[in-house]
Specification:
By secondary structure, the chain is mainly alpha-helical. The protein folds into 2 domains: about 220 residues, no CATH class; about 230 residues, no CATH class. About 85% of the residues lie in helices and about 0% in strands. α5 runs antiparallel to α8. The protein is globular.
């Protein structure tokens, strides 16, 4: 269910070419920088209470669950609003440090002051939807954040462009979409919690301490991972002057967004395994192993062909983003390979976080940050978005590998058995077949080649799943397996 819901992320991938065609790569790059800054600030402000709720709610009684969610909302949204007020006040000074095109630079202080209020809205959405996820409500939460948010943003952005808002329009569209999703998040909370009970639920000192300690222990690791995702475009913007800095951030943002497609599979398991692992760890940790192994086998069978298709169509996809986007080609290929590696390694990271190893996520993240920082310092000044892509990919894979090693040492959990190798082998075979077909279709026009490859990819995935997974794994896919004749 979570995997199907996360397919809504494809809307965001489709929307990005529209944004760059309407507003230009430089303005899109500025938007990426400001949104990355909001994302990083949110991860600091929320104290990882979003993850703490995944630990606490599944094993707490109703009163404690409601009190924990209320406390998490209060201690995150209020500071976020205060920070937004400060950023609004100091917007002219902040604008002086950000690279932008001459057209955007004139209104940059107003843009920063406006977009600062995305921080409390996004903080509320993150905490509220994580509370729903803690109730194992995966599908509705993901559809809200991925599907409806992206649809609303696209409609707002197109409307503002045709109204003549060529600089502020994209930022205002993002802000309004967050406001809409915040309102819908209140309704989502009402489905899985009693809102009246949440208002009146006591939050005793012991519960406050439990929520804060659980979250703060995970916060450094979460911040470190967010650095890998959101700091690179900010640094590219700061390293290069004017339009060049904004464009470099835009190119990296384009490559990062497209390369996130293989992560649909990985992210689905990350969302689901956190609360499931937390609940299961309270009874029998050994029962986490089947969940861990299943997710790794499915990722291995799916992600290699999916990533291969993305690489084969990379140039065609970038052509949709308008003039200048082809400069992101190598960055896109590098990031896609890195995302494929992360997905195949498996979702060890949320399991490490949820079963009590509080220091290990921080160690893993510091390893990844150190690897990224060294490579970025060496490569990014000369190679721009491409060098930053290498640094980010290697750092992210290092984090995933560290978590795998730690689970093996601490709990004897590892997914790399015979069935995993079978899924990996079929995924690799699917990648080779797809590459051969792509090579054979080279003489054809690009649109025809892209269409044939996309159509060929669907039955190829069916074969990799049918042969690469055993009958029990295929049955676990539920109704979709029956409808597609996988079982």
């Amino acid at each position: 269910m979570a995997a199907l819901a996360r397919l809504g992320a494809l809307i965001e991938v489709i929307a990005q070419p529209i944004y760059t065609l309407l507003f230009g790569i430089a303005t899109y790059g500025l938007y990426i920088v400001l949104w990355s800054a909001v994302n990083m600030a949110e991860k600091i402000v929320d104290l990882s209470l979003t993850q703490a709720l995944q630990r606490i709610v599944p094993v707490a009684d109703e009163e404690a669950s409601h009190g924990a969610v209320k406390f998490a909302l209060l201690v995150t949204v209020i500071p976020a609003a205060l920070i937004a007020g400060l950023v609004t006040f100091f917007a002219p000074q902040i604008a002086g440090a950000i690279s932008a095109s001459p057209e955007d630079a004139a209104t940059l202080p107003q843009m920063i002051a406006l977009f600062a209020w995305a921080l409390p809205l996004w903080t509320f959405v993150e905490v509220a939807t994580s509370a729903a996820r803690a109730r194992r409500a995966f599908g509705p939460e993901i559809r809200l954040r991925i599907f409806w948010e992206q649809c609303a943003r696209l409609v707002f952005a197109v409307s503002f462009f045709f109204a003549g808002w060529t600089s502020n329009g994209l930022l205002l569209a993002h802000l309004l979409s967050l406001l809409l999703v915040s309102i819908l998040s209140v309704r989502l909370l009402g489905r899985y919690y009693d809102l009246k009970m949440m208002i009146t639920a006591p939050v005793p000192a012991g519960l406050r301490k439990l929520v804060l300690v659980s979250g703060i222990a995970l916060s450094p690791a979460a911040i470190a991972r967010r650095i890998l995702n959101d700091l690179p475009p900010i640094l590219l913007n700061l390293m290069l002057p004017g339009t060049q800095g904004a464009t470099a951030a835009g190119l990296f943002g384009i490559a990062r967004k497209i390369a996130s497609v293989p992560l649909i599979v990985r992210q689905a398991f990350l969302y689901v395994l956190a609360p499931l692992s937390s609940a299961q760890a309270a009874f029998d940790r050994s029962e986490i192993a089947p969940l861990y192994a299943f997710s790794s086998r499915l990722s291995a069978a799916l992600v290699l062909p999916l990533g291969g298709l993305l690489i084969l169509l990379a140039s065609d996809i970038l052509s949709l983003f308008g003039p200048g986007a082809q400069a992101a080609l190598m960055a896109l290929i590098i990031l896609t390979i890195g995302r494929m590696g992360e997905a195949i390694i498996g979702p060890a990271t949320p399991i490490v976080e949820m079963i009590g190893h509080r220091i290990l996520p921080l160690i893993n993240s510091l390893i990844g940050i150190a690897v990224w920082a060294v490579l970025a310092w060496y490569l990014a000044p000369d190679r721009g978005a491409e060098g930053m892509a290498i640094a980010v990919s290697v750092g992210a894979v290092a984090i995933a590998l560290a978590a795998v090693v730690e689970l093996q040492i601490s709990d004897r959990l590892q997914p790399f058995d015979g069935p995993f190798l079978r899924g990996l082998a079929l995924g690799a075979l699917g990648l080779l077949i797809l590459s051969g077909v792509g090579y054979a279709l080279e003489p054809l026009a690009a649109p025809i080649r892209a269409a044939i490859l996309t159509l060929f990819f669907l039955p190829l995935c069916w074969v990799t799943l049918r042969v690469g997974l055993d009958s029990e794994d295929r049955a676990a896919l539920g109704g979709i397996a029956r409808r597609t004749k996988l079982i």
